[in-house]
Amino acid sequence: MRRALITGITGQDGAYLAKFLLDKDYEVYGTYRRLSSPNFWRLQYLNIFDKINLIPVDLIDSASIAEAIGVSQPEEVYHLAAQSFVGASFEQPIGTGDITGLGTTRLLETIRRANPQIRFYQASTSELYGKENITPQNEQVPFLPSSPYAAAKLYAFWITKIYRKGYNMFACNGILFNHESPLRGLEFVTRKISNAVAKIALGLEKYITLGNLDAKRDWGYAPEYVESMWLMLQHQRADDYVIATSETHSVKEFLEKAFKIVGLNWEEHIKVDNRFFRPLDVDILQGDFSKAENELSWKPKVRFDKLVEIMVKEDIERWGRWKKGEHFPWDASNYPNENKILSRQLRVDH
């Protein structure tokens, strides 16, 4: 039985990847941050919580990273943990650099010392491409990061390549474009929309407040994207790959599709607030996944309309169950209204 370690296993991608690997008979270990209120709802929602070996790790603490590698003895490491919200990185630029950037170096150095034969996956991001760049974006397009988050991820991208070339380690970067699901965090605009549409349709709210409606993104389905991570580590050589749908849609289009599903006019339920605009925003991201298709035989199956439908219907079902008094692993019912949170730079991630 193969052994894998997933950092950030409690996130959307970590949970879906854990389920994917368990279905392939892996022994799965996962790192999480030790908090006063543990956040395991996604693992419980997928009915895999009891099948995973959990290890508390802090990415600024090299000793805890070394402990995780020593305990799990993995053949594959999937590094998904990060400060992953673009908006929050403007509020916490130093912490983002330490966790998202240097945290990757700490993990790679630990692997190099413990067992350089471990195969390593680094969760990179389309945010690396930034503003005013070539469209569509492939592996050859230069990076122009437009946020502290993207800058930290750029460091992590290059340090992964340096360890691959300098120490002959099997280390890959997956440049994943936006990928969504019903397990997406409410900080992300797609889930914020699907959750609000469900509540509005059920009479629990009247409006949704957003920022830039014109931002365009390449949105895919997260369960499909985690398969690409695994395929990269099964390939005969380590490399970097763009994972995307090669389609782009605006936040406004996502709103229109979501409200159409419940038979409502989105324009009657939307408010735009300057607090939700970023200091620098990326106008358009559109990926070219042809290299992944040619070398990994990976391509997306769930397209934009189906993705929106999956997310909205799942949130409608969950709020319906909540209204009936059911209790189940979930995030939205305990989440405060963002309009009540005071922040000097409150931004919603696209």
Account of the 3D structure:
With 350 residues, this protein is an alpha/beta fold. The protein folds into two domains: 3-179 and 221-243, Rossmann fold (3-Layer(aba) Sandwich), CATH 3.40.50; 185-218 and 248-285 and 303-340, UDP-galactose 4-epimerase, domain 1, CATH 3.90.25.10. It is built from eleven helices and 13 strands. It has a seven-stranded parallel beta sheet, sandwiched between helices. Helix 6 links the parallel strand 5 and strand 6. Helix 5 packs parallel to helix 6 (148-167), helix 7 packs parallel to helix 9 (251-261) and helix 9 (251-261) crosses helix 11 (304-323). The radius of gyration is 20 Å and the shape is globular. Residues 341-350 have low confidence and may be disordered.
What is the element string, with H for helices and E for strands? EHEHEHEHHEHEEHEEEHEEHEHH
Distance between the termini: 38 Å
Kindly name the structural category. Answer: alpha/beta
Shape: globular
In which range does the helix fraction lie?
40-55%
> What is the total number of structural domains?
2
List segments where confidence is low: pLDDT < 50 over at least 5 consecutive residues: 341-350
Any guess at the CATH architecture of the largest domain? 3-Layer(aba) Sandwich
How many DSSP helices? 11
Strand arrangement across the biggest beta sheet: 3-2-1-4-5-6-11
The average pLDDT value, as a whole number, equals: 91
Rg calculated over all Cα atoms = 20 Å
CATH superfamily of the largest domain: NAD(P)-binding Rossmann-like Domain
Number of strands: 13
CATH top level class name of the largest domain: Alpha Beta
Q: What proportion of the residues form beta strands (DSSP E)?
A: 5-15%
Largest sheet: 7 strands, parallel
**CATH topology of the largest domain, anyone?**
Rossmann fold
